[in-house]
Design brief:
The complex is a heterodimer of chains A (111) and B (421). Chain A has helices at 20-24, 30-35, 57-64, 70-78, 90-101; strands at 5-9, 15-19, 44-47, 50-53, 83-86. With 111 residues, chain A is α+β, with helices and mostly antiparallel strands. Chain B has 421 residues and is of the alpha+beta class. Classes of the chains: A alpha+beta (111), B alpha+beta (421).
Chain lengths: 111, 421
């Protein structure tokens, strides 16, 4: 059985996506613990052994998810690496492409 | 503060009912000619850059026929004036002006009120005018506002009477509305031209409060028409400003100190990326870094408890700047949730660098709430393993930050950075 993906949008423009098959086999469910730590967002809960929103997707997108990134970083260390918190910056990407085309090197790519 | 170029400023004046000359913006000569044909000659051709003394510097020309327009529009477009390339020109009616006044509203730091100011003699020499010498002002009580009678009193004090009085008073009230409605820090018309058809705003200088721009999404202002200080925004500043535009959970105020790197080169210093929590500590840290031979390419204030996502984005921006030879992040004894702050930087490092380990020296100093949690994250994610990363905690001073960075940089380059004299 494939559980597929689960995702929700965040206020600043971006998306948190969970690969639920990866999450199903995760022994720690570190994302849920991280999200429910004091002073963080508390929007995730465990439902049927996989992470789910305890608030509506609309509420999460209105700022219910405080974009602390704790879920993704905890998952990378203690979980199965099933979360991608994407925060696109298309204009920066275009700027970097233009910079590269002009023969300049962005600071993070310098040799 | 975001400065609008003339035609954008005039658009706001027009929305408030202030009379402006008939005209339109062109980016090419053919477009300019079409606008002039529609308006009718003579016309003014005005470089759309936000700089003072455009007229004296040759940025405002006139044309009485199509041939003159073609010649003069060609001469202006693409030319550099006050360090800005002219990409747009405003083609406007050439008005027959009987008299010129100055009218402005600004956020007055002395009185902590909006202040409306009027000078009887406007135009290029208005700065030379003195209070009382045809100049009058009114500090506005925000609970009362600026009404017609306030305007009339101010104008009479400046010596205005007769048929000019009523239209000038109306314009002053309308300009105050522009200032309030669009969250300006400055709304200025210089000159106000008195013509046969009444008072007309011949030029406009509008500066907006950046933090209030989200309230004016309906006023579509082209980001490229906004300037910072006395120069146009750089592209990377424009991109960074987007981070804060609609998300006010903490700040990520980014400005480039030395966009081209020429200042660092001229002073024999080394360009680095910089991010600080709060401007006070940032300025102290900058002083220390400069004294060690480094010149931050940018200034950034990431205070007010920004979200980790905001920290991630601004860190990507800072580290994208070409030619930087390091990155310094420093907080004061901050009350903001520094683990959030750290997560953003950690995510940026992990995405930009293999195993999160940077290619340039980085000093990260966390002092304040959740500082130990913040520092531990760099250990947990393997970033601290890098020989180019130095973590400092609450016992460190700004001097320690600068010295640690100098040592890292020296080890990285295998040479001693140039010291300031």
């Amino acid at each position: 059985m494939t559980r597929g993906k689960f995702s929700f949008s965040v206020f600043s423009g971006g998306e948190v996506a969970f690969d639920l098959d990866t999450c199903w086999s995760c022994p720690s469910k570190a994302c849920v613990s991280a999200c429910n730590a004091p002073n963080l967002g508390c929007v995730l809960e465990l439902k049927e052994n996989v992470p789910a929103l305890r608030v509506s997707a609309e509420e999460a997108a209105r700022g219910g998810c405080v974009e602390c990134l704790a879920c993704e970083l905890a998952c990378a260390i203690d979980g199965n690496g099933g979360i991608l918190f994407s925060l696109p910056m298309p204009e920066l990407d275009a700027y970097l492409a233009e910079m590269t085309a002009q023969g300049m090197t962005p600071g993070f790519r310098r040799a | 503060m975001a400065k609008l170029v003339e035609h954008e400023g005039k658009r706001l004046l027009h929305l408030a009912g202030i009379e402006i000359p008939v005209g339109n913006v062109a980016t090419g000569v053919a477009e300019a000619a079409a606008i002039a044909d529609k308006i009718g000659y003579p016309v003014a051709i005005k470089a759309q850059i936000s700089a003072g003394n455009r007229g004296l510097a040759g940025g405002i020309l006139f044309a009485t026929n199509g041939q003159e327009l073609n010649e003069r529009a060609s001469a202006l477009l693409g030319r550099t004036l006050h360090g800005r390339q002219i990409q747009k020109i405003l083609i406007e009616q050439w008005l027959k002006i009987e008299d010129e006044h100055y009218l402005g509203v600004f956020s007055n730091p002395s009185t902590k009120t909006p202040t409306v100011i009027f000078a009887r003699h406007g135009g290029v020499d208005v700065e030379a005018a003195r209070h009382g010498d045809g100049v009058a002002s009114h500090d506005v009580d925000l609970t009362v506002g600026f009404r017609q009678h306030h305007a009339l009193d101010m104008l009479r004090l400046a010596g205005i009477s007769g048929r000019t009085l009523a239209p000038m008073a109306r314009m002053a009230v309308q300009l105050y509305r522009v200032y309030r409605d669009f969250d300006c820090t400055l709304a200025e018309i210089n000159p106000v031209a008195i013509t046969a058809r009444g008072a007309v705003a011949v030029d406009a200088r509008i500066e907006l409060d950046d933090d209030a721009r989200f309230r004016h999404a309906d006023v579509a202002i082209d980001d490229h028409d906004i300037e910072i200080g006395d120069r146009p925004r750089t592209e990377i500043e424009r991109i960074a400003a987007k981070i804060d535009e609609f998300d006010h959970r903490g700040s990520a105020h980014f400005i480039q100190i030395d966009p081209t790197g020429e200042l660092a080169k001229a002073q024999g210093k080394i360009s680095i990326g910089f991010d600080g929590v709060g401007t006070g500590v940032s300025l102290i840290a900058l002083d220390e870094l400069v004294s060690e031979g480094f010149l931050p390419k940018n200034f950034c204030d990431s205070s007010g408890n920004p979200t980790a996502s905001k920290m991630y984005r601004i860190t990507r921006v800072i580290l994208s700047q070409p030619d930087i030879e390091g990155y310094v992040f420093v907080t004061p004894l901050s009350s903001q949730q520094l683990d959030n702050t750290a997560r953003g930087i950690v995510k940026a490092f992990k995405e930009l660098y293999p195993d999160g380990q940077p290619n340039i020296p980085c000093v990260l100093c966390f002092r304040g709430a959740w500082d130990e949690t913040a520092l531990a994250m760099f250990e947990q994610h393997g970033i601290a393993k890098s020989s180019l990363v130095r973590l400092l905690g609450r016992d460190a001073t700004e001097r320690d930050v600068a010295v640690a960075f100098r040592e890292l940089h020296r080890a990285w380059r295998g040479s001693t950075p140039v010291h300031a004299s």
